[in-house]
């Protein structure tokens, strides 16, 4: 693998494309650029799959892996049509560590050009090119693909005093959490994951849900708890206190006790730091001036290009078109080929070569061009 980590400083370097981030989004789109013989580099602040390596040890994928590839139904967690985490990892619900191994394997197999331990701090565009400022010097390119994800940018402003809490992303293992009684704030996937794993550690848990996520059923998996989570929660229903419609307004520290106040007038206290599971602010906070936003989602063209800056693309879970949020791997992987095709055409790669490379992606539901599906609802 072409993976340089021992140089302390890189001179200015010029590429056709720079991808920022070596998670499933960056590696997934990188495989296509490599197949299209495009000159590119992936800049990664840590190592391949770093966010997954930071997951709590006990956390598992909620979307199941299954080797359906031969029947043109690739594993839901695969980032290329011809690989399957179920096949290589031999598990249905990989841990973060497992999945990072899968990402490393894909990256090595395709010999992707990677620079690890390069922390991108700023992206600017002048009249000629993008200038990327990092802790290891400047890089320049004609195109940028932003793939820096969400996990390493936790939401820490959801309520007053949230800095007093432990954010879900700061937990290495639930087995290392001290104390008996715990308050979990936020009841979506990470909140229920925390509750489930704390109960396995024999803790007494109170879950504060600003809505009622257990009762909320939606045909789009992005807006409803996964079956995997519901199956796990079914077995612990009587083992935790669950408050719905209970939005946390503040957390204060008084005499070694954390006091949690809610909008509906409840006051809870705990000797342990509450666990904040209110989600992620996203890496787009680093480059927010390069995109236009509607709510917290960036406005994108039909090619997932910024509507504000041309030749700047977004891949990964922050992609949203109309009501459809592409927040799972099986969703956003269908846009890798759209982005790669657009860049290939703009850089003058011959059409027959592009078609040849994309055929496999098109044949295997890895190419979602028609966005009219983004308004569909399931009927059963
Ligand atoms: C608890 C939990 C469970 C989940 N379960 C599932 C699931 O079952 N199925 C599913 O499809 N999705 C799941 N997700 C979502 C999934 O983790 C994301 O879809 C995925 O991580 C996004 O991939 P990404 O490549 O965009 O981001 P990341 O995996 O976060 O990768 C981004 C990469 O960019 C690097 N980076 C960040 N900032 C910079 C910078 N400034 N400079 C250089 N490099 C940078 C990071 O080190 C990282 O390696 C889950 C998420 C969580 C939190």
Key terms for this structure?
alpha/beta, FAD/NAD(P)-binding domain, five-stranded parallel beta sheet, 22% helix, disordered N terminus, binds flavin-adenine dinucleotide
Q: Main beta sheet, described?
A: 7 strands, mixed
The whole-angstrom Rg is 22 Å
Oligomer: single chain
CATH class of the largest domain: Alpha Beta
Give the total of beta strands: 19
Helix percent band: 10-25%
CATH architecture of the largest domain: 3-Layer(bba) Sandwich
CATH superfamily of the largest domain: FAD/NAD(P)-binding domain
Shape designation? globular
Number of helices: 9
CATH topology of the largest domain: FAD/NAD(P)-binding domain
- Name the poorly predicted regions: 1-8
Give structural notes.
It is a single chain. Helix content is about 20%, strand content about 20%. With about 375 residues, it is α/β, with parallel strands linked by helices. It has 2 domains: about 15-150 and about 280-375, 3-Layer(bba) Sandwich (FAD/NAD(P)-binding domain), CATH 3.50.50; about 160-275, FAD/NAD(P)-binding domain (3-Layer(bba) Sandwich), CATH 3.50.50.60. Strands 1, 2, 3, 4, 5, 6 and 17 form a 7-stranded mixed β-sheet that branches. Strands 7-14-8-9-10 form a 5-stranded parallel β-sheet, with helices on one face. It is globular. Residues about 1-10 have low confidence and may be disordered. It binds flavin-adenine dinucleotide (FAD). Flavin-adenine dinucleotide (FAD) binds next to α1, α2 and α5. Flavin-adenine dinucleotide binds near residues 43, 61, 63 and 149.
């Amino acid at each position: 693998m072409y993976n340089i980590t021992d140089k302390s400083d890189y001179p200015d370097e010029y590429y056709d494309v720079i991808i920022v981030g070596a998670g499933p989004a960056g590696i997934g789109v990188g495989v296509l650029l490599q197949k299209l013989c495009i000159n590119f580099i992936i800049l990664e602040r840590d190592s391949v799959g770093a966010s997954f390596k930071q997951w709590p040890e006990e956390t598992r994928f909620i979307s199941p892996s299954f080797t359906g590839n031969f029947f043109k139904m690739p594993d839901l967690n695969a980032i290329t049509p011809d690989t399957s985490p179920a096949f290589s990892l031999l598990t249905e619900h990989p841990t973060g560590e497992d999945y990072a191994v899968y990402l490393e394997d894909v990256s090595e197999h395709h010999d992707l050009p990677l620079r690890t331990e390069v922390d991108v701090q700023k992206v600017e565009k002048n009249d000629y090119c993008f200038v990327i400022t990092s802790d290891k010097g400047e890089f320049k390119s004609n195109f940028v693909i932003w793939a820096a994800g969400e996990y390493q940018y936790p939401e820490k402003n959801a309520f007053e005093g949230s800095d007093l809490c432990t954010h879900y992303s700061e937990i290495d293992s639930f087995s290392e959490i001290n104390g008996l009684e715990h308050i979990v704030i936020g009841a979506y996937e990470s909140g229920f994951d925390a509750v489930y794993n704390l109960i396995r550690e024999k803790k007494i848990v109170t879950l504060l849900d600003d809505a009622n996520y257990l009762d909320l059923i939606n045909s789009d998996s992005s807006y409803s708890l996964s079956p995997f989570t519901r199956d796990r929660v079914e077995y612990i229903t009587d083992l935790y206190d669950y408050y719905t419609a209970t939005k946390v307004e503040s957390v204060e520290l008084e005499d070694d006790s954390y006091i949690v106040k809610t909008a509906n007038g409840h006051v809870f206290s705990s000797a342990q730091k509450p666990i904040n599971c209110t989600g992620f602010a996203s890496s787009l906070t680093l480059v927010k001036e390069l995109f236009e936003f509607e709510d917290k989602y960036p406005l994108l063209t039909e090619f997932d290009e910024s509507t504000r800056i041309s030749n700047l693309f977004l891949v990964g879970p922050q992609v949203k078109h109309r009501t459809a949020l592409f927040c799972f791997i099986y969703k956003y992987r269908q846009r890798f080929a759209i982005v790669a095709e657009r860049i290939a055409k703009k850089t003058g790669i011959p059409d027959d070569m592009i078609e040849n490379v994309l055929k496999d992606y098109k044949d295997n539901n890895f190419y979602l061009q028609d966005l009219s599906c983004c308004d569909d609802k399931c009927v059963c």
